[in-house]
Amino acid sequence: MDRRKFMTSCVAATTLPALAIGQTNKKYRWTSVDLTALNQALVELERTSRGRIGVGLLDTASGQVTSYRGDERFLMLSTFKTLAAAYILARSDQGVDKLTRRMSITDADILEYAPVTRRHIGPQGMTLAELCHATITTSDNTAANLMHRSYGGPQALTQFIRSLGDTVTRHDRYEPELNKPNASEPMDTTSPNAMTSTLNTLLFGTALKPESRQLLQSWLKANTTGDRRLRAGIPPNWIVGEKTGTASIGANDAGFVQAPGGAAVIASVYLETDAIAGPERDQIIATVGKRVADLMR
């Protein structure tokens, strides 16, 4: 099958061609017609981007999964911050650490983009819960690095990701180095399918205690950096929780969308291009959001 084609599968099943799954599983709400239309739309969006787009979707009600370039690697950029916050929550659940523990902040810790942490320099610094909130809702880079410091660095986060069954996603470097591709190995990358599955495990599975799942969801819903991306294509009365990622070479958005009274759909969108400006990248991801909403109606 051409890599541009959609692949539809049940989470627990082997990937099969979209038509075969759509015809044999009545519980699936996304038909082959729906997915063909979505595929065509993404082909056009990718052409417009003059780059590469990856999309992974998972319906939490049925387990149906569909993707476009779903197994290709993309830089995570700041979408890794959801995973970092989840790891801190997991450590709290296990009694290894406390969300109320304070991390001191020095002038040397402050990176160029630190809208929250730069206001808390000093021995009292911020609590781990406050750092998680800051890095998800504003994408504060210093907060992310301090979170890494709390649990032993990027490699420790990768080990946590492996414990969730994700063998693809890897985190290797601190901010801001992680935003640049490594020529020799795929550092700080994920695939749309891997991120979608891992987000499902963290947000709607049993990897975290219910209170921690709800807290992680609340941080994602409170995000302020994604108004022009997935959220822009979703009806205003729907629930959206997501984390963006931005660099000179691309733009990402990964989280969940939920219609009133419906089940959530996990959506991971990765756009790699340096051929168009930021607002154009945002518009492409917003259009993906609209297509996701259309699929959920």
TrEMBL record:
Its EC number is 3.5.2.6. One of its GO terms (molecular function) is beta-lactamase activity. Transmembrane segments: none annotated. Residues 55-270 form the Beta-lactamase class A catalytic domain. It comes from the Bacteria. GO terms for biological process: beta-lactam antibiotic catabolic process; response to antibiotic. Keywords: Antibiotic resistance, Hydrolase. It catalyses: a beta-lactam + H2O = a substituted beta-amino acid. Belongs to the class-A beta-lactamase family. This is Beta-lactamase. It comes from Pollutimonas harenae. The lineage of its organism: Bacteria, Pseudomonadati, Pseudomonadota, Betaproteobacteria, Burkholderiales. The gene is bla.
